[in-house]
């Protein structure tokens, strides 16, 4: 199941500073969304970062808690570009902190929904697996 709109735009799963009530939600998302619903990203774990978390893919993991955000159509391209900049996601750049990938999340009271999610880029993920602090319960409270 997907939640693409007529133009093929996917919603975005957020789990850190972009969640409602957090600093970057107010900065980048407030007033630019049409829906925000609780969701879980299965097959991932959460690690503490310097002031923000990193989701790392891990087969069989219970998942990461967050929200599925549907961006307002008129703001979609602008907001997605701002999110890419915030997450230091630059396609093809080995220095990127995150990669933006399509994954399925489970929405509260519903089934799977395809969306964009920012996962730790592989060099960052390797470092976190080796020496990072995993957050219990898959939820960042920072």
TrEMBL record:
**Family matches, as CDD domains:** GGCT_like
Organism superkingdom: Bacteria
Sequence ranges assigned to domain Gamma-glutamylcyclotransferase AIG2-like in this UniProt record? 12-141
Q: Which InterPro entries match?
A: AIG2-like_dom (IPR009288), GGCT-like (IPR013024), GGCT-like_sf (IPR036568)
This chain belongs to the protein called Gamma-glutamylcyclotransferase
